[in-house]
Amino acid sequence: MGKLRILYVASEIVPFLQTTEVSEFVRKLPQAMQEKGMEIRILVPRFGLINERKNRLHEVVRLSGINISVGEEEKPLIIKVASIPNAKLQVYFIDNEDYFHRKSVFHDKENKFYEDNDERAIFFCKGVIETVRKLGWSPDIVHCNDWITSFIPLYLKTTYKNDPLFKNTKTVFTIYNNGFSHKFKIDILQKVKMLDIEDGMLGALKTADYEGFVKLAAQFADVVSVAGDNKKLEGLVKKIKEKKVETIEKDDNYTESFYNLYTDLVG
């Protein structure tokens, strides 16, 4: 087997942003895989809480400049990059002024969930795929972390299924205990749609809530994993699709568990 190429997609990563367990998880796992000889790319949103000067983010002009459609609108995609101190890892940041320049992540000052978090997720997922295409880098595995990445498995199995870069790409979707109670407007179904996506494929998303995001991702991902012991989430996924749900405990061995999962998936 050649050098495995793994793309990690998540809402956050240490040291740039740390609001949930995702950030630590996505910090340790890529480095562990890199040390095992795998080729790694990491993409996260450039939320407004991330200090660009302190973290030495700079724009990658050759990757920026694409417009991403979300519903009826088109929004410019800006790509920034920074290195993780004391690690040979770079992180690419998906940025857009309308969606990511707020000084908070998913809630406003009154702790109200942003009404356009669905659009922010769509923009992010599409932006990730288009950035990888611009890089001309073909991942063996795309490891999606948390609900903001939910649409990537769908897009890779439909709109991008014939793209040579993604033809053999497998997806892993990891669920965390980061649910929300907000219900989006039903027009989310139209916003999510792209080429080769039929209405029937989006049935799981009709609830327009957190469970809908997770169900849709589980439906199209090749492997679903639950971070830690969370029986409720595990049961939710098993209802959607008859597939094995990997429960990976966040102990000292979790990087080894994912290494085995990856190698089995592409083997």
Topology diagram in text:
Layout: E1 5-9, H1 21-35, E2 39-45, H2 52-55, E3 58-59, E4 66-70, E5 73-83, E6 90-95, H3 97-100, H4 117-135, E7 141-145, H5 151-157, E8 170-175, H6 188-192, H7 210-220, E9 223-227, H8 231-240, E10 245-248, H9 254-266
Parallel strand pairs: 1-2, 1-7, 2-6, 7-8, 8-9, 9-10
Antiparallel strand pairs: 3-5, 4-5, 5-6
Helix pairs in contact: 1-9, 4-5, 5-7
* CATH homologous superfamily (4th level) name: Glycogen Phosphorylase B
CATH class: Alpha Beta
Give the uncertain stretches in residue-range form. Answer: none
Q: Please give the count of helices.
A: 9
How much helical structure, as a percent, in the residues?
25-40%
| Radius of gyration (Å) | 17 Å
Descriptors for this entry?
single chain, 267 residues, alpha/beta, Rossmann fold, ten-stranded mixed beta sheet, 9 helices, 21% strand
